[in-house]
Write a structure and sequence with these properties.
This protein is an all-beta fold. Helices cover about 0% and strands about 35% of the residues. GO terms for molecular function: hydrolase activity.
Length: about 100
């Protein structure tokens, strides 16, 4: 069984079908990548490099924008994307440092 699934051909993220440990090698679009971090089941990884400001596409639809550069195979979640549609669950301090919302 593959560990990741692309839900739509236009997606630039893949969804983990199970928890995949850091150090695991995966093949994405013919390129081998080693996961730098553990990816929890149902979380996303970048299928290709995504630049800060680029649209994140899942289900063939935009779900938000990258807030930082995201290398292929890296975790894509609230720490590096923001929704264009709903409030985020992280906050930025006045100095721009991100912290979890309480």
């Amino acid at each position: 069984m593959n560990a990741f699934l692309r839900l739509h051909a236009d997606d630039n993220v893949l969804v983990a079908l199970k928890t995949v440990e850091a150090g695991t090698s995966i093949s994405v679009d013919g390129h081998d990548l080693v996961l730098a971090e553990t990816i929890a089941r149902a979380h996303k990884v970048a299928a290709r490099a995504i630049a800060s400001g680029d649209v994140i596409v899942k289900y063939g639809m935009p779900i938000g924008r990258a807030t930082a550069d995201i290398a292929a195979g890296r975790h894509v979640h609230v720490h590096n994307i923001r929704s264009d549609y709903t409030p985020t669950y992280s906050l930025r301090d006045n100095d721009g440092v991100e912290r979890e919302a309480s």
